[in-house]
Amino acid sequence: MNLVEAPIGYANPDFYPDHDSRVRQLRADFAKYYQLQEIAPHALDEDTRTQYLAHAEGLAMRWGRHEQERFRRMWQARQAGVMGWQSGPQRARRIFDELARSREAGELPVDDELWDALVDARHVTGHGDGVVLASAQDADHRYPNLLPDTYTAATRDRPLAALLNPPEPDPRTAVERSLGAPRTGVSAATEKETDRVIAATDAALEAEEQAADLDTGYETRRMLLPREIRDAPITYRYTDTATWETRHAQLLRQVQDLAAEHANNTFDHHDSDHAVIHRLETLRQATSDAGRAALRAGIVYDDVERAYQAGRDGIYWSTEPSHARLGRLAQLTEQRDHALADAAALRHQIDTTHPEYGTAVDTGTDTGTTASAGRAQDSGEPVRTGAGADIGDAIGAALPEIADTSWAAAEPDAHAHSGPAPTAGPDMEVPP
């Protein structure tokens, strides 16, 4: 008996509790129709695939064009339910749960035949409750090996996994469950015995740590380098690469966020179908334009495709960037900008509330200090020395690259240097 003829799982008419044999056969044939549609693309050869599709088409012709309108309506309702689960599983699950609660509470009368169609569509597409692993989904929701009369009207709305494997009462206490005690009728160890086992384990781990050779050779290799090399600060300037890396991060984020917005049902608040269609088309076109812009900017195709795939799965850039390095750089840049803004606000607050603790930068040379003091005396401003100079030195050491208008740097003496103006070197940034 091949797959087409075998009444397996939902394709078995005896699985359903209906009294009418024709209804049972229709429900089983629809499950068989869906199974064949799913399996046909993965058939071993072309003849088998053609056989599966032909049999599925025959079932659709039999019930979709049945002489009785009742059976045609039941078949079409199941097809519509399957399309709903395939196109928007989150929305379909939300609607199904609301209908289930309303039906159970008696708030909304739902026809039994329509409800059976919704339940069948939910089960054959593998969206029943309690599905976690793919193997469990295949075993419990796709092709379960059920015996006749295991599905009754009293348990029609219960998850299929609960019908096949009803949960047994757990005799363990909360402590025993947390410690991983076996789920059997044998009593677990007492608390005193548990404490003894934990203490013995800690002692064994401590002894192993003391006896083990914890030296991995890192310090030995490190001491082979001179101090001026192993402790030297990084002098490479990342100014040139920061611009295009920031641009690449922005473009990849746009691709991922637009694709995620298109995938998620964030347009439910629209009133008309026309607005929904227009928004979907706009998001789709924007995603394509963002992808082409990213490729034109020099981003490799694999990075753009990875951003699109992450967005298609409903993952926004803020949740998990598709490019780990660019996402981390963007995060650090944002944190740095916030820190600089907070520091600037604090300096401004100090200058406003405590002008005697000025935050002017001390150049650390006698000439600069004297020139600053002379300008302060000529303009009538107080000379920033003592505690104010210490605060300025501390802020200057912590944030040496901040260029803020409230930071009064010392100006060079006009007569101290009469040579030509300095030219821009490799370590000097020329403002745009």
From TrEMBL:
Comp. bias (Low complexity):
358-376
Region entry Disordered: which residue ranges? 164-193, 355-389, 404-432
* Taxonomic superkingdom: Bacteria
Name the record gives this protein: Uncharacterized protein
Species of provenance:
Nocardia mexicana
